[in-house]
Amino acid sequence: MTIGLVSGVVAAAHKDPSLQGLTLLAVQELDLAHAPTGNGLIVADCVGAGPGDVVLIAHGFAALHTDTTAHRPVDATIIAVIDRIDLE
Fold first, then answer.
1. Which of 6, 11, 26, 27 sits at a 20 to 30 Å CA gap from 37?
2. What CATH number should be reported for the domain whose range is 2-11+23-81?
3. What pLDDT digit, counting tens, does each position of 10-52 carry?
């Protein structure tokens, strides 16, 4: 899993029919100090995240284990909006 900052919403006029109703978001990956890593992703949203939210992202097979993404062609899914990260 990784953390990221939602930077925008992806609009697609033509997409696979199984993606209908699924929100796709542009996300900038972050390190644990909330600094950008330089990696950008397009991810499926299953928690109602939006621009400016810091989110937790599941990748690969784990991304398909939500009610929203089951049986859909996605490989990255937002599974939580992060309120804070406490590091010692």
1. 11
2. 2.40.50.220
3. 999 898 999 998 999 999 999 988 899 989 999 999 999 999 9
